[in-house]
Design brief:
single chain; mainly alpha; 15 helices; globular
Amino acid sequence: MSAVFIAGTMFFSLAFFDNSSAIEWSDAFLRIAREAAIFVVLVTLLVNLRGKKTVKHARRVVRLGFYCVCGIAALVVVQSVFFALGKYVGIPASYFIANGNTVPGWRAYQYFHQRPMGTYGEPSYAGYIFLSFVVMFYPYAHKFHLARLALFTAVFAGILTRSLGFLVALTFLAPFLLSHAMKSGSFLNSKSRKNLGLLAFLSIVVVGSANFEIIGTTLGRVGSDGAVDVSSIGRIVIPIQLMGDYIASHPVGMPFVQAAIEVSSAYHSAGYSSPTLDNAVFNFFFAYGIFGFGIFICVLGAASDWTLRTYLFLAASFNGAFLSVDKLGVICLVVVLYESGKVLLLQEGTKQVTGRSSVMSIASNPPEI
């Protein structure tokens, strides 16, 4: 019920819509209605799937996921080679229903070293997809060899995209993933540790051989010798600078089109041709004001642990959309597989503890012959 109530508050911003155009008002209403419906579905899913094993054939699911990761990663590798040669290989921009304008033109591939993005419209979104693969398959890594290969492939391909968001997100997620595995009682056995250690070593060697500057140039985009990372400024720095005055002027937010117009001057003064509202964490506040905090906290609070909460927060940071159909589909898949894998991990840990207890009991009390 709380999710439905919070979803209802999302419509308050319509009362502050200054434009009298019926078309723009209806567009704003439909956008908020869509986001409110997705919000309720997402929160309901997160709450109802806590600690539930809904995947019955884990081995088949892992195998299918492995094939998907390998397919996208193979395209990323091919694009890395051909983009360096000034040739585009991938889905034509005209086939994209969204983000088609972010696919660089042919001149860009001849004069600039473009980053691979797989089947998606931008490298950042590809990085988000590979991060999702890491989260959904990590709980299965202790049991299935293909899951460990899928993790290696996802990390390898994510690095190749040179998405700064992917590297930062992976850094934030790593402590939670390792902590959860150790607490489960079924941490990686010696064979698994050797396999993952070998895969980690090979990933460093392969990535370094392919392009030893790949991580350095990615991290270097943050800023060196006075240079700045345009993407980071547009997604983080400018929204933080605007947030205080914006909330004071529009405490319950504004419809998104109006919000973009409201903050456009700050982006123009920073050298942007148009507002780049590419961080959904801040977009919650731009669209819904102080209610945006409640909306986002409700989503994070519905998650079962800090690994999922961190993932949801990072998922919103990769682009300007969070309560969208495509993000909902990806997050649903991640939650279903992650929760099922977590139950499997705990079951395996219980079996190992029970088995060790039985052995110790027999050793201390040998049966009489």
